[in-house]
Design brief:
14% of the residues lie in helices and 33% in strands. β9 and β10 form a beta hairpin.
């Protein structure tokens, strides 16, 4: 999250809306020797097995998500803000005291400076986990521990039925990420899927879709917008991806250098999450 949002946005304005950088391509499955027109029973059996495996996977994800509870799930008001330290990648922003209390579920945006309405646009129920970039563990506050802890101890979690939504309010100087909760993890322990990221700061905030940690590439339908800017971040514009699906080679895509800058002292965001496209 070491992004200078304002500079990225300004640089993007001088570029064309088009780009020669291509999204990460989804690997093409190797055709099976039995998958021919003369072997339709085998193909149908394979398809049924694949569907059954997918159903089992979704059941496991549902069981996992149902047991996920965020630190701030029961809060109805913000806690005390925690002063940030460090800069860029090494920055630890406001994580709230008690931890996670820099974000709360609310029924209305009214009266809150920074909000994000999450909308489930998929056809299945999903659990969304939200985390702070930093996390306070046994060794104190660590700047980039939040995503690794999210599958076990997110700052906030909530479950949305298809078409349902939830507004979340954030305190000043919150650097956060979120993702659909799944059982698939990265080596670091973080969710192996596409993330949403946001930086809420008076004077200029920012947000982006990031497929960097998604081992399948740019294959998750997520889109973000804010009323304060025309900039959209989704899987087709202003997002981050991993070159050759290598998370150590992050690269921005889009006219705003992979991110959207929100000018002013508020951020009124909407995030639509449609699930995996594969």
């Amino acid at each position: 999250m070491g992004i200078d949002w304002a500079s990225a946005y300004a640089a993007g304005q001088s570029q064309s809306q088009s780009s020669t950088v291509a999204p990460v391509a989804t690997p093409t499955p190797t055709p099976s020797a039995t998958a021919s027109s003369s072997a339709s029973p085998v193909v149908h059996a394979a398809a049924s097995a694949s569907a059954a495996t997918s159903d089992i996977g979704e059941m496991i994800d549902d069981l996992f998500s149902s047991g996920l509870k965020g630190l701030a799930n029961d809060l109805v008001a913000f806690g005390t803000a925690v002063a940030s330290s460090g800069t860029e990648i090494g920055k630890s922003g406001n994580i709230g005291n008690p931890q996670g209390s820099n974000m709360i579920k609310v029924a209305s945006r009214e009266g809150y400076q920074f909000t994000n309405e999450f909308i489930n646009t998929s056809k299945k129920t999903m659990t969304i986990a939200v985390w702070n970039k930093a996390f306070k563990g046994n060794n104190g506050i660590e700047a980039n521990l939040g995503s690794c802890m999210a599958p076990v101890t997110p700052a906030l979690s909530f479950t949305l039925a298809p078409g349902a939504s939830q507004i979340v309010a954030f305190q000043e100087d919150s650097q956060v990420g979120w993702a659909e909760a799944t059982t698939k993890k990265t080596v670091s322990g973080a969710f192996d899927t596409t993330w949403g990221e946001a930086n809420f700061v008076t004077g200029g905030s920012g947000y982006d879709v990031s497929s960097i940690m998604n081992s399948l590439g740019n294959v998750y339908d997520m889109g973000m917008s804010a009323t304060e800017t025309p900039c959209i971040s989704d899987m087709t514009q202003n997002y981050w991806y991993a070159v050759n699906n290598d998370a150590e080679q992050p690269k921005p895509f889009g006219s705003s250098d992979g991110s959207c800058y929100v000018p002013g002292n508020s951020a009124t965001m909407t995030t639509k999450m449609g699930g995996s496209t594969v």
